[in-house]
Amino acid sequence: MPTPSKTPNPISARPRIAVLLGDPSGIGPEMAVKLLARQRNLDAARVLLIADPVVLAAGERAAGMKLDPLRVNGFDDLRFEDGRPTLLPHDWMQGREPVLGESNEASGRASFEALELATAAVQRGQAEGILFAPLNKHSLRLGGLVHEDELRYMQERFAVTGFVCEFNLTGSLWTSRVTSHIPLREVASHVTVEGVSDAVKIIASALRRAGVAQPRIAVTGLNPHAGDGGSIGMEEIEIIAPAIERLRAEGYDARGPFSPDTVFIGARRGDVDAVVSMYHDQGQIAMKLMGFEQGVTLHGGLPVPVATSASGSAFDIAGKGVAQIEGLQQAFDLCVRMAGGGPVRALSSAEIAA
Length: 354
Known about the structure:
By secondary structure, the protein is α/β, with parallel strands linked by helices. It has helices at 28-36, 39-44, 53-63, 105-123, 137-142, 150-157, 187-190, 193-209, 235-249, 263-269, 280-291, 326-339, 349-353, and strands at 16-20, 46-51, 70-71, 86-89, 129-132, 165-170, 173-177, 216-220, 253-258, 274-277, 296-300, 306-309. A hairpin with a 2-residue loop joins strand 6 and strand 7. The termini are far apart.
């Protein structure tokens, strides 16, 4: 006689997402409080809020909202209640209020150590995804980060040896890049056939999981006018075009290299599903112009989804209660769907506002 199927427990079926407040001196705490004040988010996932209570209280004041978390003493005491976040508190600020509106060591250390605890939660099997409110990379370095960025830090923590990359999403358009947080003077030496190929393959894989059967991927050139036939640089001829030829031979719909100053015109029109750029600002400026408040950053190549909003720490409006959370909401929803094994897709404006 067949064994009857069991209905999953509605609480245990929801993914466990570690949520971080971001940089205490920026808008992150306010954004996280606003996000977790939405009951639908607490119904969608079991939230592990890793925070300094002083920073959380500052975020609540800025947001004009009060959370009701279940407080636990540590990982061994970890438990969840339906519809409430679980707070794992740590006294990183040593009882001192965060200094708003500037990079500083105390805030950098608090945000860095929160990230360390979130990765530990994943390693212990107590979180299936990480969402963090905006961090500040300068503060992180002041607080102890020695890596290029938080993605490379997590790559090391999770012992990932393959290619990792930031994805940026605005609406249905995705981007990845060959190089990321390095000085502009070093970019050309880091653009290689293997790097271009890896950046295309990793975003193609993510798009297939998102339901795009044959992703159309535009690849930018490195130089103005994509090198202008070699008169403004040879990287397009010697590196980028050969990488695209190799990718097409392997079955990828990779196109280009396109002039960086025009490729996003067609991308915005829907001609492609993704753009692979050669360096950070080449893609980021265009994406943020197309939808800064709704933009999402997803760290690709890690064992669990790690997401945040595309907006920065916005020191100029920290503590003023005016921070918008559309991007963080979309990042949360994406993280929940990926951690739960469901289909990944961009949200519509109506879904974001709901």
